């Protein structure tokens, strides 16, 4: 979920409640807060906790909340995980430490320390394109032995490595790249953590529901129908945060500005996103 801001750039908690209600009503059976699309690099620890509390108020116990707590510092990550639990999170999303590019032994130690300290279930976030460091499949296999490391948000773009871990562990995998939602689900993933679903939650719920019902052809059609919007929002050179906020603003939904160093999408981009959105929902 994006983190909505007011026009002045402050946290828009009422907008966050509205967005959370819309996503749950649209078919999301869980919400991830304070992730990449939620602008976690530029929100404060206090803002992160306030966002979790506000969304918890809005959705109650209807869906689980997973809070992004990953930083480049193990101590700070643990602090954020503890704060997320107090604010009402049911689990935490922990990204690989970035910039320092720790070796695999250090990556494994980082996740184990957070899992030992937090008491909450952990979803590992494997996105080497942003962090510079992969959680290698063999490291995943070892981490899967920890009782509180239960899930993975997969943005590795290593389908073979992912299948290797799926075949040998009980980790619940979630596609973190919208173009992989159906493909990963078809080989045993549990679902997706989606940027594009900020705008069209029902589309991805329908893809997974169709697959569960055995109508794989319909699931494929739905996934392919979403391709143009997926590309425009996540593969056209702008961060998903920027495109998601631009589209939600076009739809009259809470979004607000992005925080620097990000810059807002231009009017032409926003209009193009709106056109692709309309085309997708009119064909659903």
From TrEMBL:
One of its GO terms (cellular component) is cytosol. Pyruvate binds at residues 37, 193. PROSITE patterns: DHDPS_1 (PS00665), DHDPS_2 (PS00666). GO terms for molecular function: 4-hydroxy-tetrahydrodipicolinate synthase activity. The keyword 4Fe-4S does not apply. GO terms for biological process: diaminopimelate biosynthetic process; lysine biosynthetic process via diaminopimelate. It is an enzyme of class 4 (lyase). It is found in: Cytoplasm. Keywords: Amino-acid biosynthesis, Cytoplasm, Diaminopimelate biosynthesis, Lyase, Lysine biosynthesis, Schiff base. Homotetramer; dimer of dimers. This is 4-hydroxy-tetrahydrodipicolinate synthase. It comes from Streptomyces bungoensis. The lineage of its organism: Bacteria, Bacillati, Actinomycetota, Actinomycetes, Kitasatosporales. The gene is dapA.
């Amino acid at each position: 979920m994006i983190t909505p801001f007011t026009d002045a750039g402050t946290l828009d908690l009422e907008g966050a409640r509205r967005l959370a209600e819309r996503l749950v009503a649209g078919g999301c059976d869980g919400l991830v807060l304070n992730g990449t699309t939620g602008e976690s690099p530029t929100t404060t620890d206090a803002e992160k906790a306030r966002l979790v509390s506000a969304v918890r108020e809005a959705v109650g116990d209807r869906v689980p909340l997973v809070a992004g707590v990953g930083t480049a510092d193990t101590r700070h990550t643990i602090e954020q995980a503890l704060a997320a639990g107090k604010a009402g999170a049911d689990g935490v999303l922990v990204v690989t430490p970035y910039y320092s590019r720790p070796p695999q032994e250090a990556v494994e130690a980082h996740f184990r320390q957070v899992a030992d300290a937090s008491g909450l279930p952990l979803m590992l976030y494997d996105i080497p394109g942003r962090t510079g460091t992969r959680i290698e499949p063999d490291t995943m296999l070892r981490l899967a032995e920890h009782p509180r490391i239960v899930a993975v948000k997969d943005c590795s773009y290593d389908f073979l490595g992912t299948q290797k871990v799926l075949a040998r562990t009980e980790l619940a995998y979630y596609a973190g790249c919208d173009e992989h939602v159906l493909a990963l689900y078809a080989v045993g993933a549990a679902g997706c953590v989606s940027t594009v679903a900020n705008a069209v939650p029902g589309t991805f719920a329908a893809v997974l529901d169709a697959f569960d019902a055995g109508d794989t052809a319909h699931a494929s059609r739905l996934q392919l129908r979403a391709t143009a919007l997926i590309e425009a929002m996540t593969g056209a050179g702008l961060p998903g945060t920027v495109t998601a906020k631009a589209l939600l603003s076009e739809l009259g939904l809470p979004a607000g500005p992005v925080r620097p160093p990000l810059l807002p999408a231009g009017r032409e981009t926003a209009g193009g996103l709106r056109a692709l959105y309309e085309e997708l929902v009119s064909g659903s």
